[in-house]
Amino acid sequence: MQINFEHHQTAHCENGVASNLLLNRGLKLSEPMIFGIGSGLFFVYLPFLKVNFAPGFSYRPMPGAIFSKAAKRLGIKIKRQKFSNPQEAQAALEKNLEQNIPTGLQVGVFNLTYFPEEYKFHFNAHNLVVYGKENGKFLISDPVMDFATSLSESELEKVRYAKGALAPKGHMYFPTHVPEKVNLEEAIKKGIKDTCKNMLAPVPIIGVKAMRWVAKSIPKWAEKKGTKVTNHYLGQLIRMQEEIGTGGGGFRFIYGAFLQEAAVILKNDELKELSKEITTIGDLWRDFAVDIARVYKNRNSKSNIYNELSKSMLHIADLEEAFYKKLRKAI
Amino acid sequence: MKKQDIPQDESNLKSANMTEVLYVTDENNNYSTANSIGWEAKKAALDESMALINERIQQAKEDVAQNKVSPIIYFMEFNKMDISVLASYMGMWQWTVKRHAKPKIFNKLSNSTLKKYADTFGIPVDELKNFDGK
Fold it and tell me: Which candidate from B12, B42, B88 shows the least CB-CB separation from A163?
């Protein structure tokens, strides 16, 4: 059994699943549109939560938030289910497939057989679509893959029941109602306002303020924890920034593409200029990653390197703050 | 990022036959997508992370050989887990797992508990029991 489903590769898994599922229901929205309307641009710093032996940084909101917010703003209804029993979870998925409903799943990546070894770690907020079952194998459209793949029943159960932080617990979701006409203008504005609100939030662990906290911590780590630990923390920052699918630099470019589309829909030329601005900021995030990578290579590098990295990140935070302030005014 | 600046550095993606999508601009600042086979900076971060994991596995192996910790710690590291991830797979409190990490306690564990650990690590019970780190 195989549902007629188009696999499109995207930069980020959650946007990709959302965009692909909606396209299947006749609503064509690009990945950047979903990302922008769903307020996907984010930054959070959780210094006390240790992930892979480094503090928690994330350039994305909680898993599921992008699609949920986008759906709400577009008048789409999504059904979400979790199951305590894996057999029930599989039965519910198969029932959906019989009814020709391609279904989104939240999964852990550690046991995703088709991923490269270096990407397999205990991270549980990946998303993919199941669109059929053939010869006992589930047909998988993983949006960060170039091509559709498949997983056996037990392989799929393993990733749906991965444990640890953000355990998916068999979480599956699919749109149950897609309106014939959506009010894109309103949805775009709401998405932009929410992003500006989050990124400018007066809370130390979120948005621009959190970036500054991280930036200021870099020299302190070096002083207190030594070079090795600091380099590992910085590595975590890059991995979170540039992991397949997620990304700080990458996310800025997706947002740039969103603002470009939004400028046309809202007939607002200012957004076009802001698209260029966030693109420049994205380039700076990438330069920042290159600078960090350079620190690995020259282990005996001069001691003020961490101060310089701190300064570059503070500079990016300043530019971002100015950007969100302008963006808030522009709509 | 400009289309012509897309990094094409051979990377870990190759082993899985993958590329990744990036949003890039053309000479008129118009966005489109393009695929990349990898990027040096990201590869450096992933390599560092793998090196750290391998170091931890090696250390765990030595600790087991010297009877400082039980084989649970070695297989935990081998599976890129920490105590909290392992505890949630086992459905136990973290302090229980930490107790089982002591060689003395580990040697007294029931077969069913050992089986549960072995299943979590995807290995036969004997491999878990007989691992001596040497």
Answer: B88
